[in-house]
Amino acid sequence: MAAHQVYRTKRLVGGALAVGAIMIGSYGIGPATADPVAAPATAGEAVQRLMDLSRASEQLNQQALNAQIDLDNKIAAAQAAHQVAVDAAGVLTAARAEIDRFRPAIDRAATSALLSGRTNRLTSLLVSSSPQQLLDQMSIVDLVGARTNDQLSQYKQASDAAAAAESTARTAADAAQAASAAADALRTDLEHKRSELQGSIAGVVAAWGQLSAGDKAALAGSAFPPGFDSETLLRGLVPGSGTSALAAGLTRIGDPYVWGATGPDQFDCSGLVQWAFKQVGKSVPRTSQQQSNFGTPVAEKDLQPGDVVFFYPEVSHVGIYAGNGLMLHASTFGVPVQVAPMGTTPFHSARRY
After folding, report:
1. 308 vs 146, residue with greater confidence
2. pTM given for the model
3. Which of 4, 57, 72, 343 is most buried, judged by most C-beta within 10 A?
């Protein structure tokens, strides 16, 4: 097939990626509703059905990845809250033990005061038979009073500490319970999205099987557009830069698209971007939505090779800019990793890592 025919087919494919999905769920777009079993009437309908299903599956793949990350975060928060609750319970136990240590002395002092009245300096004067005995009596009274006051003070401190610890423990336990409930809810949501994704993938594979060999070849296209010169593009690249990540990504040309794959020899769109930057020592987030908030914003008119480009309103596709309106990306099922025009896909934003 001639090069212009390949790109004509690929423009049709790129446009078809934008349709075929319905709005459902907490993350936005759900799977297409086309029946993958009924035979398409024409080759064009077969390609359209495949693209509808592939687009929906790509969205669901990113949604499931985001849900997994959210779940991991909620589980970590629940574990941290549980540990706080355990620590708070330990502090409460220690505070109550401190109360128990002082309680006998406080009880004895209270009982003595009730039964015999409070001993004071006047009582010492009345019962003393000599000045020395008076001094001795007054010293004992001072010592007993100071000790009782000190015990009362420590008992109050222990009681206050116990009350504070009890409040902290109750709050921590409530937080741990809420975090666990949130994790359970996200776990259910994740399983639902995984089930949707598996169903959508099955539809894509079935639709792919209905394409002719010629349609499959046209869909896959070529690895590079006519005239693409990687040597000139990568000349003078700086180690660790976006251009060096692009160079790493270009070594994966021809690798298959696989939902949820992060390499080293099969990828989804965000997995390829993450892998490429990892090769040059940069750790970037996993999903296209997360990646769209990483690094520094870049206007479309200021794009440079190695910048990361994002597509669709919900940011469900990502690639690495390769200059001259081209991008390196893992496109969709049946299309290997390649350099392709980015103008057929709705541009959203760009970042520089």
Report:
1. 308
2. 0.64
3. 57
